[in-house]
Amino acid sequence: MANQLFLVGYMGAGKTTAANALSLRTGLPMIDLDEELERRAGCSIAALFDQDGETAFRNKESDLLLQIAGNAALPIVACGGGIMGNSTNVRTMQTHGHVVWIDPPFEVILERLRANPEERPLLATMGDPFDEEVLRAHFAERQSGYAKSDERIRDLSEEVLAALADRISRGG
Length: 172
Hints:
By secondary structure, this protein is an alpha/beta fold. It has one domain (4-169): P-loop containing nucleotide triphosphate hydrolases (Rossmann fold), CATH 3.40.50. It has helices at residues 15-26, 33-41, 45-68, 87-96, 106-115, 132-146, 158-169, and strands spanning 4-8, 30-32, 76-78, 97-102, 151-153. Helix 1 crosses helix 7 (158-169) and helix 2 (33-41) packs across helix 3 (45-68). The mean pLDDT is 91.
């Protein structure tokens, strides 16, 4: 059984950034589920949402998670923002590793999302431009899923990244 590190959190939380930083620090490979879904589909996440809808996208995301969970060659996994909404996904991640919730303040996430809204297909469902109150409600709704994580990190400081890198390098 692999001992993977699964990074979860709301869109714009910094999951991919953290996974890349951890990969650089440890020399170990990482996978970003959204990027891998795009690679396999040959189109963007936004196009996947447009073509098939969010439910079909979430099913593909869950299938991919099942394929990579337990793969020791992929010790660092950046997950999509909605992955914790499926209890099977939560159990899968907890069975195969350590689930870390990256949870910066909502204002930080809001600033990041405003900078690149076109990269987030879910934002299109929240108005154009997206409605901050709708986003805040969606953010709050997702918190209970993320709370099932093994660990919660509010700030990805150098010290936190070093501790996570050490945990990955030790295999646990």
